[in-house]
Amino acid sequence: AESAAMVEGGKETVDSFGTPPKIQALLAAIENMKSDEKGVIFSQFTKHLDLIQQQLENAGHSFVRIDGSVPAHKRIICVQQFNSEATDSPRFILCYLLAAGTGINLTRGNYAFMMDCWWNEAIENQAMDRIHRINQKRKVNVLRFVMKDSIEERIVALQEAKSMQAKGVLQKLKGDEKRKALLGDLRG
Q1: H-assigned helices in 118-174
Q2: Stretch 53-66: mean pLDDT, rounded?
C-alpha cells in the first residue's frame, strides 16, 4: 500500500493514501497486547513519531512523549507517568531514540517497538535496555519494523555482519559464522 504525509497547519497528517504500512503493522501488534501491558515506541524521526501519535490518538490509546523538544523536568514527569501502575496511567510512551537512549528507566513497559533502523545497532540496543533492566518483572518483547526491499534490509544485514565480526574477535566462531564474519560486509 502506498502512503504519503501532508502538512496541515504546521502538523503532519496522513492524506488520502491512508495509514503508512509500518504504522498499520504497529497498530496490529498493539491489538495483540494484553490490557495490562505497556509499550515503548522508538523512532529516530520526530515526524514519524508525529504520525504515530496521530494514529494512537485516533485509536483512543493513552500515551506520553519524549523527544528533543521536551525539557528535562517534563521528561521525568512523562517517565513517572508511564511507569505508574495506576489504571489511568499512559499505556504507551513515544520516544525519540536519542532523547530516550540513556539515563531513563522504562521497566513498566514490556513491549519495545523499534520503528526504524539505525546504522549503529548499539544505539538501538541502548534504547531497548531502558526497558530490559533490573526491576523488570515482565517478559520483554521487542518488535523491529523493517520495510521489505528497502535500505532498511541492508542496514539490518550490516548490523548482523558487524555483530558477527565483534563476536569473532571475542570468541571462537563456528564454520558458517566465521565465513560470514570474514566476508559479510565485503559483499555489497
Answers
A1: 121-128, 151-170
A2: 96
